[in-house]
């Protein structure tokens, strides 16, 4: 019986952090979105600028805001890491010379 109580206590202690990091299912209000946008603009993000490198500037502003708030996220996100290399298979493509339309017949 003592081991059962001990197992329940250990399971409760291990499950407590899961509940503390759970996100609320409440939708974000318009005021919260506006406040976040103002905070991002103060951090250097310009939503009206036409930028071909869009994700980089907003991510940099979000990182600055997170650093100011003390809630910096780890460098690795839930999207996975960056591939270190790549490989190709097959053979190199060679240009075919000009051939007659009757070639091979």
UniProtKB/TrEMBL annotation:
The keyword Signal applies. Residues 84-99 have a biased composition (Polar residues). Keywords: Signal. Residues 71-105 are annotated as: Disordered. It comes from the Bacteria. Residues 1-22 form the signal peptide. It holds the Pfam family DUF4148. InterPro entries: DUF4148. This is DUF4148 domain-containing protein. The lineage of its organism: Bacteria, Pseudomonadati, Pseudomonadota, Betaproteobacteria, Burkholderiales.
């Amino acid at each position: 019986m003592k081991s059962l109580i001990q197992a329940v206590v250990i399971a409760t202690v291990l499950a407590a952090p899961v509940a503390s990091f759970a996100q609320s299912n409440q939708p974000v209000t318009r005021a919260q979105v506006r406040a976040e946008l103002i905070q991002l603009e103060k951090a250097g993000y310009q939503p009206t600028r036409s930028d071909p490198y869009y994700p980089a500037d907003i991510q940099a502003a979000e990182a600055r805001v997170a650093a100011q708030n003390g809630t910096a996220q780890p460098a690795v996100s839930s999207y996975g890491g960056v591939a270190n290399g790549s490989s190709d298979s097959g053979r190199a493509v060679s240009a075919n010379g000009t051939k007659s339309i009757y070639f091979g017949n």
